[in-house]
């Protein structure tokens, strides 16, 4: 199977032009940025949980929601079929379709971190975790976009994701009272908080690799499901 | 003659509803093959199966000697172009930007965009946003996208359904140019004029089954009753039967210098379709 950067960039350029004229993109990015600006002025020294409340919200709003809406719109307007029938391969279509959401997410997270004055102890290590998390959230957005029949439906099915993964750190406070909620410890958002907390305390890769592995596993599982669903959508039964 | 499409005993059921049943046909390289039938007769289902978008329930369908299920490989996708009612365009982009994307996907130089827009009479509209186009202009832009990469085989599902006669004629000229260059066209339509103008052979599809398949000329001859329509100078129109009686009557009218015009009474493809299925082509 070939991989053509020309085709990836063609899809990326198209999305960039298309989304620059799309209101839901700018409004989705604004929410975490506004929250970060408010948090940054609320206290001198915010907790890691506070930083990652904004960062996880940025993931769900920018990576997952935008990606989900992009894919759902392609399906709704029958343009995804054009890509499927072209010589572009699945990795080329996914890479091209994910680049805009990836760049927007990274920029939103970096700007939000600056607003909140969050400076990790080990920037490189945190950057790796942020990148892997971004890939997971984009894969999740793609999966949900393939399942949604329209942009309106996409904006509805994204709500549980925003609640569970965007505001998921609230679940931690309920775990002692409701032990059943301990499953949430393995969610990628809480794994990222654990990861960042340990890094901020001075831990190195050997102490945090398990958290990174769990996030990577989430990415791989969701990517696999996304490819299976995409292949099913390629040929109707 | 090389066959580009081969279909044997093809059937497609949606639940218990038979969309296609026991369909057989071949399409030769370079010909324009018309699949004619009213809405819901199975035309789009056939295109979807032939382009690998839909699985058949049973039977075999081969395109470029490959089972249609394997058409998802890039080397085959380059060889065909598709226009169906679900060939969407990006509304917030211009016609040019839409086509530029597909130039890059198919490795086609961008200068080809002007050629295809000329063929569909949109060369002056290329900077227009797709959302601002009329239905007919959108259909022409979709058509331009379908043959942008100069495919060997074109699937066109009612390509002129939203076009006015002048633009339809422009498209017909463009499609004839393509077939001169060796492109094979698989065309579905319920427009009999379009079929007669473009198709080398036609198949009549009704309730998922092929009722007739031949050249339009041969079908008209086959269903002709050899009668003649005669217009007389006094304004009367006569329908004279074939054979000695008709010939005698015609001779008498001509002897008396009463005849303005004589036409053979061949049926149109539409008449033939109605004759064999008992329903109109809409």
Automatic annotation (TrEMBL), chain A:
Keywords: Membrane, Transmembrane, Transmembrane helix
Pfam families: ABC2_membrane_3 (PF12698)
GO-annotated cellular components: membrane
Domain of life: Bacteria
Protein name: ABC transporter permease
Keyword Transmembrane helix: yes
Gene Ontology MF term list: ABC-type transporter activity
TrEMBL record, chain B:
Pfam families: ABC_tran
Domain of life: Bacteria
Coiled coil: none
PROSITE patterns named in the record: ABC_TRANSPORTER_1, ABC_TRANSPORTER_2
The protein, known as: ABC transporter ATP-binding protein
KW Nucleotide-binding (keyword) present: yes
A GO molecular-function annotation: ATP binding
Domain (ABC transporter): residue spans on this chain: 5-232
Keywords: ATP-binding, Nucleotide-binding, Transport
InterPro entries per record: AAA+_ATPase (IPR003593), ABC_transporter-like_ATP-bd (IPR003439), ABC_transporter-like_CS (IPR017871), ABC_transporter_ATP-binding (IPR050763), P-loop_NTPase (IPR027417)
């Amino acid at each position: 199977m070939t991989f053509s950067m020309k085709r990836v960039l063609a899809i990326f350029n198209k999305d960039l032009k298309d989304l620059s004229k799309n209101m839901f993109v700018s409004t989705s990015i604004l929410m975490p940025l506004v929250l970060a600006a408010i948090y940054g002025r609320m206290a001198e020294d915010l907790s890691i949980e506070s930083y990652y409340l904004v960062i996880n919200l940025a993931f769900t709003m920018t990576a997952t929601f935008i990606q989900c809406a992009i894919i759902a719109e392609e399906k709704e307007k029958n343009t995804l079929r054009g890509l499927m029938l072209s010589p572009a391969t699945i990795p080329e279509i996914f890479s091209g379709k994910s680049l805009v959401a990836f760049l927007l997410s990274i920029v939103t997270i970096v700007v939000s971190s600056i607003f909140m004055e969050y400076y990790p102890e080990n920037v490189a290590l945190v950057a790796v975790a942020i990148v892997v998390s971004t890939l997971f959230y984009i894969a999740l957005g793609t999966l949900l976009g393939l399942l949604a029949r329209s942009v309106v439906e996409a904006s509805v099915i994204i709500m549980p994701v925003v609640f569970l993964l965007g505001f998921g750190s609230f679940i931690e406070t309920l775990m002692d009272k409701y032990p059943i909620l301990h499953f949430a410890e393995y969610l990628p958002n809480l794994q990222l908080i654990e990861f960042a907390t340990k890094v901020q305390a001075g831990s190195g890769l050997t102490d945090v690799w398990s958290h990174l592995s769990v996030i990577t596993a989430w990415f791989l599982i969701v990517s696999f499901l996304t490819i299976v669903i995409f292949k099913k959508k390629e040929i109707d039964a | 003659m090389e066959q580009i499409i081969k279909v044997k005993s093809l059937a497609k059921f949606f639940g218990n509803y038979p969309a296609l049943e026991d369909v057989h046909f071949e399409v030769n390289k370079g010909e324009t093959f018309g699949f004619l039938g009213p809405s819901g007769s199975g035309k789009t289902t056939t295109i979807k199966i032939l382009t690998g978008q839909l699985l058949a329930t049973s039977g075999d369908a081969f395109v470029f000697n490959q089972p249609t299920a394997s058409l998802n490989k890039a080397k085959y996708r380059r060889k065909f172009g598709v226009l169906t009612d679900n060939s969407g365009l990006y509304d917030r982009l211009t016609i040019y930007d839409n086509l530029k994307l597909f130039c890059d996907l198919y490795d086609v130089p961008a200068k080809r965009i002007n050629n295809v827009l000329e063929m569909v009479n949109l060369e002056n509209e290329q900077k227009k946003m797709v959302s601002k186009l009329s239905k007919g202009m959108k259909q022409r832009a979709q058509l331009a996208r379908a043959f942008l990469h100069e495919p060997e085989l074109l699937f066109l599902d009612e390509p002129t359904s939203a076009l006015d006669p002048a633009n339809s004629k422009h498209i017909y000229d463009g499609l004839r140019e393509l077939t001169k260059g060796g492109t094979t066209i698989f065309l579905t339509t319920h427009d009999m004029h379009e079929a007669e103008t473009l198709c080398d052979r036609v198949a009549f599809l009704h309730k998922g089954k092929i009722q007739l398949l031949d050249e339009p000329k041969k079908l008209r001859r086959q269903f002709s009753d050899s009668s003649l329509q005669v217009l007389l100078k006094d304004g009367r129109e006569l329908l004279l039967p074939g054979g000695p009686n008709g010939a005698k009557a015609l001779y008498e009218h001509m002897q008396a210098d009463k005849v303005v015009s004589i036409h053979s009474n061949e049926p149109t493809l539409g008449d033939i379709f109605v004759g064999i299925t008992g329903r109109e082509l809409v």
